[in-house]
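#struct-pred

JT: dropping the chains for the assembly here, can someone run the whole complex?
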Amino acid sequence: MDTKTNTDNLESEILEGKAKGGVAGSDADIEEVFDKSAAVASFIREQSANHQTTNAEVFLEAPFSLEVEELLALLDELKLEGAYKDIYSIKGEKTIYLFSNQYITHNYANMMVMVEERDLIKLVAETVRYESKTYPRPTDVRLFYRNPFKLSVDIFKAVLKQLKETVDYDDIKETKASNNAVYLYSDKFMDRSHATSLAEWVEVEADQNP
Amino acid sequence: MAKITGWAGKMLRVNLTTGAISTVDTMKYKDFIGGAGIGYKIIFDEVPQGTKAYDEANKVVFGVGPLTGTGAPCSGRTNITSLAPTNPYHAVTDSHMGGNFGAYLKFAGWDGIIVEGASNKPVWLRIENDKVTIEDAAHLWGKGTVETSMLLNEEMGKEACIASIGQAGENLINLSSIVNSVNHSAGGHGGILGAKKLKAIGIIGTQAINIAEGKGKDWVDLNAYMMDEIIGANNQHVVPNTPQPWAEFHDSRSRWTAQTALFWGAAKPPVETGECPPGEKNKVGLRTQKAVFDLGPVAEARTIKMGGCHSCPIRCQSNLEVPELEKYGLTRYAASTCINFSSPGSVMLKGYSDGDPKGEVALITKCLGSRLADDYGIWSNYGQLPRDFKYAYTTGKLKEALPKEEYDSIPWDLVESGDPAFLLEFYRRIALKEGEFSHLGDGPYWLAERWKFDEDYWNGNSLWSKMAYPKHHSNESGAQVGVLVNIMFNRDANSHTHQNMIGAGLPTELLREISGEVWGSPDAFDVPQNYTPMNEYKANFAKWSLDRNFLHDSITLCNWVWPMTVSPSKKRNYRGDTALEAKFFSLATGIETSEAELDLAAERISTLHRALTVKNMKTIDMRNQHDTIPTYVFDVDPDKKPFTPGTVKMDKDDMQLALTMLYKAYGWDEKTGAPTRATLEKLGMKDVADELEGLKLLP
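RK: done, full complex below.
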């Protein structure tokens, strides 16, 4: 396996499924891996405590200066080591992101990664699908104006327009409550009638039944 | 004899006809726990059948329980039990108030006050520990609850807690409340105190409430466990209303509003709620920024703090600074929550002058209305009062009913322009019994008779039944479960057990898993607005919701937060702890009691309430005479069928099956819904069975 030091190569490694870690041979190696693991985990936790995910590329640079293979191996080590069971990774389109679930939940980290990746159409569509499937509920579009999304109204409107024109996301539908509040839902997971009635409940009826 | 702990051990009996003051041994009622349970027993035993709410023979029981004032989280409630003047049968109801009254009553050494008879002149009751006197209230009569409290606090000292009626109660307005500490109101029984000429009760209590010997550390540990792992926000919502890094889930309807950059903006200096994840018990009180939830973002800058009841960490009562109130002759401070804010807004039939339902004018209107209602002592009947006003106005019934001169004297221009000043007219006319308009305060049943409302009135306007109350978390809240909860009482169902679970904010599949563990099958819990036909597990859910409500009103705990069916804790996989009431009860009383045993006591109280309703209504046919369901429940969404996605429409046959299943779960007669002798005896109430048999009211 070639040693690659730039982020494109790291991405390739991940996408090609080559991201398998090596096994340290000597006691000294084990000690070294352990130290690096601790340092990497500590950095990830610190970032997470500040409500930030960690782009794995940061470890290719000083002060860590890990080689790609070394980093990938180390990340695999983290998964196996009980002391680092709080460290999780999410594979993005361009890199991988790391976080500690002591400070950030997996769901929130997923949102942060989508924001980081700046694929706003996917961000909206996947969020809506997740909510329609999980809760299930239609998604109040005002969600995207808040943390961690923080889209402006104009940007959101532009994204929504493009989303509606994207075949891959043709399951994402819009409905409105009687107060004109806009909600989105995925018809893979929710019936239109159901989505509309839930939106009406949240927007209008719940206030009448406090 | 073992020392009595948890309970104070004695209740106060005050006869206003004779002036006699005596004590009653609480422990002979301990199977009924306290509060509502003891209230029902006393009303069942001591108030003759056929008594009407304002009769001298009616009694009022102010009841607290073994947890009230102990420091158990959310244990500051007071339960008031009496016959209801709004109910066409004058059947029994409870009214409930938070604040400090209940705890102070315990500190004074009392588990309850039984008020009986009637005075021939205005009086107030002064309680300073064991020293109890009936005092002249001539100087208080005609005054609002605010001034009454101020005068009695001047007399007793600021450490006293004062509960009083306003002018509405004095004038026997059916929709009257009893208010303590100026803004903690209990709805429905104010007029009864008015009939008895009892203006107020002032309490100073300086005694300790004991818990079981040697259980202090266990108590502290249990409290810490609940605060760290179990409790959520108001309504036991367990997820925040915005995405937050620590939170796996979120829900925009959650009352867990705390977040970064959200403040109590009028505090000096402003207090940021911040994020308040589980495990940080000292932040529980910041989780619910209820002013913003109730009144919108404009309330943030006006929020001085979130207040609440004795021993409650949730703090759901908004304390606001609203200088505009001074224009209407009030102080600039407002404090209220929930329906007391929304109800005055509904009076403004044409909306607000700025057209914004969450704007500044709406906030001022709601604060003004809530202060006026609390000062006059007017009860909104869970928001039904303004709906009745709207119905009467829009159908022309109001114009028909009022003399022309009176109708023309009402400043309708204020309604048309959305001017909050209309509320001054609205509440004053009702409280002071000014003219025909004041009959809006009679309540739906008597009003509909008096103003000859059409039958369509009963099939809309959010009314539930001719028992004269509105729906309160009914079919829109858990389908059959919500309906069954709504048929049980003689006023609006103040049961939040089922609604809190449904609104907790967690994914439905998770809630279904938990439902399976608590009620026997995940099928107890439906996806909201996508319902399934009735099953026995839903009957379990409904019965459990009712029983826990009766338990909370007896023990006393706040049913707006309890029970702890779920938690915000991911490490617990969001499981709550439904045995917590029993754990606190055991530690307080020293009577080791399992969750099942305490649930059985709750079932006893539920069944006694049912038996008392049978006695009040003089019929065993609860199914057809009491447990009625409005037709809109079955007619809503004409183009949809029941049990299809997107409708709360119910099926008539299915609901009759639901009634049968609930009756069966209680061991009541499955045909009529009345308690049987066998069930009453199983629950230790042979005397109740004997009384009902004598009245020919056993199935």
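JT: nice. Chain A touches chain B at residues 48, 51, 103-108, 111, 134-137, 140, 142-143, 146-148, 190-198, 201-202, 205-210 (CB under 8 Å). The two ends of chain A are 63 Å apart (CA to CA).
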